[in-house]
Design goal:
It is built from twelve helices and 20 strands. It has 435 residues and is α/β, with parallel strands linked by helices. The chain folds into two domains: 328 residues, Rossmann fold; 99 residues, GMP Synthetase, Chain A, domain 3. α5 crosses α6, α8 runs parallel beside α10 and α11 packs across α12. The longest helix has 22 residues. It binds 5'-O-[hydroxy(phenylacetyl)phosphoryl]adenosine.
Amino acid sequence: MSKERDVLTLPHDELEALQLEGIKKTLVKCYENVPFYKESFDAAGFDPYALETLEDLKNAPFTTKQDLRDNYPYKMFAVPMSEVREIHMSSGTTGIATVGGYTEHDLEIWGDCFARAIRYANGGKDDVCHVCYGYGLFTGGLGAHYGGVSAGCTTIPMSAGNTERQIRVLREMGSTILCCTPSYAMHIADTAISMGLDPKKDFSLKVGIHGAEAFSDNFRADLEKKFGYKVLDIYGLTETMGPGVAVECWEQQGLHLAEDHFYPEIIDPETGEVLPDGEWGELVLTTVDREATPVVRYRTRDITRIIPGECACGRTHKRIDRLHGRTDDMLIIRGVNVFPSQIEDVMKTVPELSSWYQVELTTVDHLDRVTLKVELEQGFDFDEIREIERLQKEVESRMKSALSVGLKVKIVEPKSIPRSEGKVKRVIDNREGVN
Ligand code: DLL
């Protein structure tokens, strides 16, 4: 049994001892090497040398994305630059990017954490791992790449884009593992189908390792049906490492958090109070042994819960539930809180609708106006105008009763909503004074 497998089945108290030991060192390293942490610990009256239990960590102050931005580019680094081998950055659509640094040790851990997804799928040296997350500053491409190599797979660095070429390579190289965003996987499947192929028969895929954006159970089921493979959800973020922070096992009952490297807390996003296992809230992460850019109580803004109980797979690392949104993608429409996942839940009750949609928000007469564009499922007849109108009204009424807010529904032709090679853009907010 490999060392890595041993860690995955460690009794939880031993895992906690390992976390405590790592976090004690992390706190001291942060305090002594990163001026931001010295200031923030001192201001909160938190003594980094006095941590006795993991619970004591709740007395440490949080770290936010803004803190990382304020310290752009290198001020959060806890090691000399001579030890840094690689950097990545978040996309930074709303301003300055956040930067993650990696020492050799950090890169090794990263590859190992992503490789867990491949091993959960019984993948290894006989597999061909096709990576079409984007390579570059985004952590998706290289994270999956290091994972493929670490698991011993033959790894193909495709990056995103040029979908017909992806399809050719998938067929000709006999790829067995597909790594990309779920929306890009769907685009690959639909493009292959429109080329007259059957992804189930013409590809050799056995597993898709998809993440970087939320996707519904319905979307997953569609993908599994089209490709005839199994989808494992993978979670991560630039600020703590990239993909591999948490990964689903073959049971598909939540994502095992790599507890030997990350300590999770779930908090009430309003009060900051730590919530018990089982309750939904915001995920907060502390790195246990990250060298270059450790983080202490980083507020991810991602909403999930710790799933109580043990996993049937026998691994002891706690599981987080599949993500249903972020505190900051919650839409406030005429004062009502709406998550895109609630819209998806209603959509999946209507068989004529596909999983592709886009929400557009505008301001009309100082009021929020919401239009939900959703594609008709392929195979239904778009030319039956009266039928489409009836369907639109039906969906509007279901949305109204589920969300307590009215949306205008516009059913559009299959494939008319723009596809993305990376993360899909589901919400376009053109309201006055919002952006
Ligand atoms: O998206 C890292 C990644 C790459 C994860 C490839 C998985 C696969 P960022 O660009 O920094 O990093 O974005 C991080 O994306 O805080 C979540 O809101 C969202 N996210 C990531 N994985 C998932 C997932 C990468 N499996 C942000 N489900 C995170 C839902 C996800 N949302």
